[in-house]
Amino acid sequence: MLKEALHADHPAADRAAGLELYGWLAGQWAFDGWIQRAADAKHTILGEIHAGWVLAGRALQDVWIVPGFFHGTTLRIYDPAINAWHIIWSDPLRQSYTRQTGRPSGKDIVQEGTNHTGAMTRWSFVDIKPDSFRWLGERFANEEWLPEAEFFARRI
Question: Which of 40, 74, 144, 155 is the most buried (most CB within 10 A)?
Answer without folding.
Answer: 74
